[in-house]
C-alpha cells in the first residue's frame, strides 16, 4: 500500500487517471498485486518513507511521479510530495535554497537517493534494501 501526502493544495493524477485533490489528508493507493495475493501488510515503522521535492510546472517531476507510480505496483512505501515553491510549507527556505535548480529530488528515510531523473531499478533496489534493513532490526 502506498500513501501520498502533500500539503500543496494541487491536483494529482494517479495510476487510474483520476484527479485527486491534495490537502492535509493522505491518499492511499494499493499496489495491483496486493488485491490477489492477500499478503500481510507490515507495520507502519517498516514502510520506507519517500519524500519527493518538486516544483510547479516541472516536467521532470511529472516523469519522476510516473516512475514512483510504477514502483508502487511492486513494493509498498509512503510518499510525501514537497513543493519547494509553496511558501506555506515548513522549512521552505531551506529546501528551496538547496534544490531550486535540482528538482526533482528524492529522499528515502531522510537521505537523498536521486536527483533529476529517477532510475526505476535503482530506486526499487534502495527501497527494498531499506525494507529489509528495517525488518532485520526488529
From TrEMBL:
Q: Superkingdom of the source?
A: Eukaryota
Keywords of the record:
Electron transport, Transport
List the SUPFAM superfamilies hit by this protein, alphabetically. Thioredoxin-like
What organism does this protein naturally occur in?
Meira miltonrushii
Q: Any signal peptide, and if so, which residues?
A: none
Mind telling me which Gene3D superfamilies this protein's record contains?
A: Glutaredoxin (3.40.30.10)
Output this protein's name.
Answer: Glutaredoxin-like protein
The similarity annotation says: Belongs to the glutaredoxin family.
